[in-house]
């Protein structure tokens, strides 16, 4: 199965593109584990789950679980962020860093789509980063995936349908 990854700074529109690819193009997808875990923990009363000691490990575990659930007959799958994205949020001083490095080196993508920030981005309870932080994280994602030897395709800001078209035309 070919894996295509969408990455980029928070609020760039990755999740909307992934959902569009599923709903309007019939593609197999894997939703972003980090956002879903944050939303779930907040619904359970934890206001800042990213401060929990095992937060990143739980994200990795959920991501691996979701990858294992992709239909075996799927020719390809589009992934909304993946384990290497965690390297942008966790430096070498963190306990989870070595696991992230190890798990990241095992990932193989047909292509990585770097989704650029929209003109207007919104932060929220589960996405607290401001525009400057989102730009820094997007640049870090590009650096991480380039370092892993991935082919990176830029997805410029624009209408949802146009962004999905850029991805599908670059498979």
Question: Can you give me a brief rundown of this structure?
Answer:
This protein is an alpha/beta fold and 171 residues long. Helix content is 45%, strand content 13%.
Overview of the molecule:
The chain is α/β, with parallel strands linked by helices and 171 residues long. It has a single domain (2-169), classed as Rossmann fold (3-Layer(aba) Sandwich), CATH 3.40.50. 45% of the residues lie in helices and 13% in strands. The chain has seven helices and five strands. It has helices at 14-25, 33-43, 55-68, 86-89, 97-105, 131-147, 160-169; strands at residues 2-7, 28-30, 76-80, 111-115, 152-155. A five-stranded parallel sheet has the order 2-3-1-4-5, sandwiched between helices. The model has no long low-confidence stretch (mean pLDDT 94).
What's the CATH topology name?
Answer: Rossmann fold
**Cα Rg:** 15 Å
Main β-sheet, spatial strand arrangement: 2-3-1-4-5
| Overall morphology | globular
Terminal Cα separation, in Å? 13 Å
Taking pLDDT < 50 over at least 5 consecutive residues as the criterion, the unreliable ranges are: none
Overall pLDDT confidence: 94
Instruction: State the CATH class.
Output: Alpha Beta
Count of discrete domains: 1
Note the main sheet: 5 strands, parallel
Estimated share of beta-strand residues = 5-15%
Total strand segments? 5
CATH superfamily membership? P-loop containing nucleotide triphosphate hydrolases
In CATH, the architecture is: 3-Layer(aba) Sandwich
- In which range does the helix fraction lie? 40-55%
**What's the number of helices?**
7
List the secondary-structure elements in sequence, H or E: EHEHHEHHEHEH
Q: Return the structural class.
A: alpha/beta
């Amino acid at each position: 199965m070919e894996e295509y990854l969408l990455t980029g700074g928070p609020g760039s529109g990755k999740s909307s593109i992934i959902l569009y690819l599923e709903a309007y193009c019939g593609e197999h997808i894997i939703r972003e584990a980090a956002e879903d875990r944050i939303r779930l923990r907040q619904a359970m009363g934890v206001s800042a789950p990213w401060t929990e000691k095992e937060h990143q490990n739980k994200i990795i575990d959920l991501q691996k679980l979701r990858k294992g659930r992709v239909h075996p007959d799927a020719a390809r799958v589009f992934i909304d962020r993946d384990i290497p994205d965690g390297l942008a949020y966790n430096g070498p001083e963190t306990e989870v860093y070595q696991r992230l490095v190890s798990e990241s080196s095992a990932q193989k993508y047909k292509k990585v789509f770097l989704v650029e920030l929209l003109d207007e981005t919104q932060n929220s309870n589960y996405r607290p980063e401001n525009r400057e932080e989102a730009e820094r994280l997007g640049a870090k994602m590009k650096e991480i995936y380039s370092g892993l030897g991935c082919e990176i395709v830029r997805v410029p800001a624009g209408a949802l349908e146009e962004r999905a078209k850029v991805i599908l035309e670059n498979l």
